[in-house]
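User: Assemble these into one structure.

Assistant: Restating your components, then the assembled model:
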Amino acid sequence: MQPTNQPADAGGARAAGAARSGTGAGTRAGTATAGPARSARPAEAAAEQSSALVLHVNGTAYELTLDHRTTVLDVLREHLGLTGAKKGCDHGQCGACTVLVDGRRANSCLLLAVAQDGRHITTIEGLAHGERLHPLQEAFVERDALQCGYCTPGQICSAVGVLQEAADGFPSHVTPADAPQGGPVQLTVEEIRERMSGNLCRCGAYPRIVEAVHDVSTDQGMAS
Ligand code: FES
Ligand code: FES
């Protein structure tokens, strides 16, 4: 059974989120006019706009109460202090925020946290086993597949998803029509480029990123 943590910052984070959105109790209390009838409304409004939920992040269960508009990316970075996933565009365009949700990659900036209640999220911080890096992390280092590193956590989480999708037989846009159905998809360089195309790198480290993913897929007997 997973340990259950209620982070000490849950209340503070909720207040911070409310302050950002300008709709929380703290914010409204500061602007409400005096009077007992009016003072009760902000708290009621804040309660209506928040929900309690549990997110399992990197093996730890977090009980959170969140404004309904809070994204998973903001939960990770601002409430849980997991800053590996990056906010590049905040619009689902760059992939810098990629994490794994129940084993499938997703842009966390597009996910509302309240819709992920009970799900298991893995971030770049959760890939290593103690001091031992994930094979993709090692491959990125060995191939020097980064420059500034801003996109790298998303690239690596996305690559973890790619390997699993290929192993599970999910075809891509470039998978040959006559490829065997249902079996693992061989990850050619073309397949890796296509499947990683949602993760942008402003530094242009693409050639080495592809090499790193290909190295690991080769080690796993999935490359051709
Ligand atoms: S920050 Fe999520 S896709 Fe760019
Ligand atoms: S390494 Fe700089 S954005 Fe990719």
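The helical segments are 10-21, 25-31, 36-48, 72-79, 135-142, 152-167, 189-195, 206-219.
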